[in-house]
Structures
1.
Amino acid sequence: MLSRRDSLLQRLTKAYRVLLAGVLLLVGSAGLGYFLISERDDIAQSTHVAATMLATQSTAALMFGDVQVLRENLGTLKEIETLRWAAIVPGAVNVPLPVVGFGPVPENLASVRDRLAGGREARSVTDLIVRAPIVHHGVERGQLYVAVSLREELVDFAEVCALALLALAIAFLLGERLFSRIVHSIVAPLGELIDLTTMVAGQAKAQASLENLPRPATEFDDEVGQLAIAFNEMLDSILRRDALMRDQAGSLERMVEDLRSLSARMRAVREEERTRISHEIHDELGQRLTALKYAVARLDVGQAADDLTAQIDELIRTVRVISWELRPSVLDSLGLVAAMDWQARDFSRRIGIRCGVDLPDDEPKLPAEMATDLFRVFQELLTNVSRHAQASRVDIILEVTETAIHLEVKDDGRGMQQREQDRPALGLLGIRERLERWGGSMDSVPVHPGSARPGTDVRIMIPLRSQEVQPMEPMQ
Amino acid sequence: MQWHVRLSLLILMTGAFVAPASAADSAAEARLKAGFVANFLQFTTWSDAPARITACGLGQGRASDTLDYLAKAAKGLPEISIRRLRSQEGLEGCHLLFIESEQSQVLPSVLSVAAASRLPLLVVTDFESGAPLGATISLVATGGGRLGFDVNLTAARSAGLGLSTRLLQLARRVY
């Protein structure tokens, strides 16, 4: 009956109705029952008194058989408004005497005597019969029976009941209105709080600002007022936390940004350094070695000179390789596509893995730093293949559109999963760092999923803004 | 002869019928009077509160019958002893004296003897003129076979008898 589907107001009203109805019913019925019983007791009591007095009064008349006086005596009972009948039944008297009656005395007084069963009174819902013995000198001379109707009293009682019911109904209705007002005064602020909470939850879900929400009234001292104060404090603390989180997120973002730019700067510095060192080595060391070679050739020292020249040639090649690895000069002089083509062929020659190359015909015009990063990423991917994939073939595809650069490196090796178990992917971290700078991404999927040598297909994508690419002009 | 026989038979039969009838009437009357007298005893208090009441009767006929019934009628009373008197001699020791109507002429002398000896004597007469003449109570036939009584309160007081007010209420006349 008091399920939680109903609102507090409904439940409280129900509880009020049930409790009040129960209490009123209990008190009312107890009161009315007491009233009925005590009223009947009063009537019985007064009837007993009247009967006893009359019995005493009628002793002599009974003994002398004076019917006249007995009738007169019975006549005094008329004062009892609800009297039905009264009768004097003679017992041990010395004179012949009939039953003297007043009112509609029942013919069969024996049944009345049976009903009394030797007692002083017999009571039913509608009537009361009282017996008073008429005794003189210890001898019972006769019996006085007085019958009183209780109907009028019942009618009175019914009227009282009806009035009581009416009063109860009025009290119930008025009480319920009052009670409902009281409960409403308690529940209504709760409803406002619920609305506000719903609003806050909605705003929070929509990630909207909680700043300008209405606040519940807090000027009351009751529990709901305290709840409102707590609600406001909670909202304030949420707002403070929001502000704090925004600050922290901002500073974190700045920190990340700083770190990125620092990292980029470091890469740039390193790249410049490499380029410088590469040029130094290539220009200074290479030219001097070449000069040294010609000088040795002019010396004409026979076999020794040939050996020396061969060694110097080897040295010159080594210097060139070092210089290339520090900074492929092709990248600066011919551009990304030429550098990648050269790198792929060099890779195939040095490592012995066949390379399929699909590059654009024209050199796309990219920012120099982007080209460097892409080239370094490409180098790292090839290094990964040579180190871990145990592959026999690598396919390289570069595609430059107006909106993005796509680089794909496919091998037929062990697969990425297997490789990653061998060693932490520090090289991949470097690739990601370089790509992040340009908002690029890297995916790797197996070429033949499920097979023993699934291979790896690494796809690099760097988005291009329109001003960053002019594919028809070769980079110079 | 025949009619003589018939007449005598008729007379005999009538007598046979009438005699028991009048005998029954007189018995009932005696019983009623005995009841009244017994009731008088119950509503009377003597100054010396006797443990045993002596009821005396003066007369041959009905008084004797009445006294016969009196002993039976007086339930709830101290024991009653019955004494039959032939004259006013021997009134001493009597608490009640019932004088039948045939003996009405002895009343004045009985009263004077009782007064002289200051006897607490309840004098009940079976004739109406008893009470006005100084008897305490006189029985009166009120017609229809009913019985009533008159009370002489002065006589009762001078004899030192207390009569219940309830008895007085029932009296036809109180002198």
2.
Amino acid sequence: MITVDKRENYISISIVGQFEYEVSEQFLEIVKNRIVIANTKAVVIDLSRVNYINSIGIGTIVTAFKLLKEKGKDMSLSNPQDNVMKVIKLTKINEIIPVLTEGALR
Amino acid sequence: MSELFVVILLLNVLFFAVGTFVLLHKKDVHLKRKVKEIIDEINEKVYLIDSKIYFEIDNMPISNISAEDIVHIKEKLKKDESHFGEYVIEKDGDVIKLLSQQYKNEIEKIKEKYEESLHEQEKLKDKEYYYYKEFAEKLTYVLKEINEFHREIRDISNLNIKFKLENIKDKVEFILEFFREKGTLDLHKYKLYRIRNLVDLLKEEFEGKLSIEFKIDNNVSAYYVEIEKIFAEIKAILYLVLKMKISEVDKNINLNIKVEDGYIKFIIKNNTSNFSFIRLIDEDFMFVEQVKQQKWRFTVEENLVSIDVPIHDFGGELTDEIKTMTIHSHLDQIKDVIKLVLYDMNKYGFDNNEIYDMRLTLDELLVNAIEHGNKFDKAKHVFISYKFSNDGKKVAIEIEDEGEGFDHENIREPDILSMRGRGISITKKLVNEMKYSNGGRKVAISKEKEV
């Protein structure tokens, strides 16, 4: 499940459950059709309720990051669970995409 | 069971072949009678699946259905529709087709059963589901028998023999195709035996018929095979190749067994000039499950036949059980495979992090096998086998696809910003060992408990 919330100065996209095949497709649809044209600069992907991610999920995050970058937007990830953070670190995407933890969004 | 079947089959074929050979000299009246007997016998077996076979010799039909029978059947169909139900009769020379309601019901049952079982988590435990799978497999064997028989009479007779088989082949294909389309997960447990045990069994089987020469590597004790699965098929192939001639060839055929390159190799060499191996045709292979699934490599030359069977190399310590699964190229099936492996890991006391790592590993490798290996071709399989070490501290898994392989010796680190291509690099970091073989089609991994 994916929900999009417009906050004061950023857009939050939150994903619940497993971040893999189907979710990846939906997620990219949303980014391409809605987020890219929004007038907010910051986009935060809320991963706090994602309990599983595979390389397809990681590839999707990277693709979204590039799409948004092209439009001058900044994307970051927030509050991944331990096992999701493990995959993020393994694939080193945290070296290019900021990962925010609790409290950083105040 | 299947061994017994092969033996009976061969006895039948042998008996008939020799019988027919003698009869040929006494002119074809006898041959026709003999053929009719055999047809009756086979028809008795295929009766259950409601099929018939027909032969013509020199354009004279030899059928166990006479003109009177046809009239009788037609009458019966008119009167008793409940028995035959839906039917088709096509008079084409002497060939008629019967398609009975009974058979259609059987197919319908399979379908219903499968649909039902889709809703059940415990699909694998569904006995009836397996009953129908077995049914399909039995049909395959019947077909094998009939093809065998046909080739036999064609080989030994100069007469122009035509062979017609109605229904059976289509039925078998239909059922197998049905399972193929739906994508099933075959889970089997096999005991692993040392290769030496297989050699002993073959020795026993061919003692006095073949001279078995062993060339076995010193490290062979490290290798294991699923004897129950492969012995019958090896035997069947050997008999097929050497068919009928086995008493003549005596010790002039050598069977050489060695281990090389992840395979156990059976090399059968012919040292006589007055005998050559039976040429096998594609249809022969169709019935040997392992060859059909392309797990085995097979070469037949005039004086040399070789069969390569993949073996398992899980290192020294072993439990004596291996589980194997076969799936088709459906992404949906990945979850079933993962579930089973993780369930067992949990049973052996692997912790949640280790289990999570394995979930991700299998996910990545199975997606690769289906997507990059088999290119989503649903006719192709992915083979999975796994086992635990004796002390339960290590799980070893092999995954093999039927694709074209890839250059596994030059795997590049993926670019951080690329969309795809991270699977292998992630996996490598999650397991203790990872080794590709068979041109990149097969990957073996192992994961140990952390101390």
